[in-house]
Amino acid sequence: MKVVLCRDAHEAAALVADEILAALARKPDLVLGLCTGSTPVEVYERLRAARARGAASFARVRTFNLDEYLDLPADHPQSYRHFMRRHLFDGLDVRPEHVHFPPAEGDDLTRRCAAFEETIRAVGGIDLMLLGIGRNGHIGFNEPTSSLASRTRVKTLADRTLEDNARFYGPDEVMPRLAVTMGIGTILDARRVLLQAIGPKKAEAVRSMVEGPVSSVFPASALQLHADVTGYFDPDAASLLAERAYYAKTRVLELELQRAGRL
Ligand code: GLP
Questions:
Q1: What is residue 95's predicted lDDT score, i.e. its pLDDT?
Q2: From 34, 35, 69, mutation site for ligand 1 pocket: most ligand atoms within 8 A of C-beta
Q3: Which of 50, 93, 103, 152 is the most exposed, fewest CB within 10 Å of its CB?
Q4: Rounded to the nearest whole angstrom, what is the distance from the C-alpha of residue 36 to the centroid of ligand 1?
Q5: CATH number for the domain including 110?
Q6: How many domains does the structure of the chain reveal?
Q7: Sheet holding 192-197, edge to edge
Q8: What is the pLDDT of residues 171-220, one digit of tens each?
Q9: What domain range is 74 assigned to?
C-alpha cells in the first residue's frame, strides 16, 4: 500500500480531491465509489467548489455509495443518502439517475444487492473508490470477520461501530443495528482506491491496516491485496506506523520520477 504522510487533514483532502478531479478530466464518465463519515467532508467541499467555479463537470459521472443503514428513510438526517445530498450531490451537476446506493429499504434484499453489483459491472466497474476507516478496521460496513471475498449484502453492525455512531442519535432515537454494504470483494474490484484517515483515534487502525497481517479480523488489511491503493494520513493517524521514514523517502523519490516524466 502506498502511504502519503500529509502535513494535516487539509493537505490530505486537497490531494484526494485533486486526484479525483484529475481522473475526471481524463475520463468525463468516471465511475466513483463514495464513502460517508466526517473524513471525506472536506474532499466533497472541494469537489463542489471545483464545480461552482466551472473547473469540473460531473454530468456524465456515475456514483456508487459504499453503504447505507437498513430501514432508515432517505430523508432521515442520519441516512447516508441524506448525508450525500447535503455534502456533495446538491452542489454538483451529477444526474440523479447516475447516483446509486445499495438497497436498504423494502424486501428482496439479496436479489437487489446482486442487482446493485450487476449495475456496477454494467457501467464498467468502479474507477476510483474513496474510503475512510472505522476504529475496528471496518471499510464500508464490513465489520471484523467479514469474508475478504464478500459482495454487497446485509451486515450486522459491531458494538464498537454502534458506540461510535451513538453521538449522532438523540436519547429517544432508535439507532440502526443493520446496514447494507458493498463487500470487501466489491471494494477490491475497484481500479484504484484512495483511503483517508485523520486524527489520533485512527492511529491503531492505520497501523493494523498498513503494517499488520492480512486478516478478516481487521477488514481494512485486505487492501494490502489491492495493487493500487494510496492511504493519505495526517500526522496523528500516521503516528503509530513503524516505517514512517521509509514512506516519506518513497514519496520524495516517486515525486522526483514523476516530475522527470518517468512514471
Ligand atoms: C462509518 C462508515 C465508513 C466510514 C466510517 C468512519 O462506519 N460506514 O464508511 O469510513 O464511518 O467515519 P469517520 O470518517 O466519521 O471517522
A1: 98
A2: 35
A3: 93
A4: 6
A5: 3.40.50.1360
A6: 1
A7: 2-5, 229-233, 192-197, 128-131, 31-34, 62-65, 99-100
A8: 888 889 999 999 999 999 999 999 999 999 999 999 999 999 999 999 99
A9: 2-259
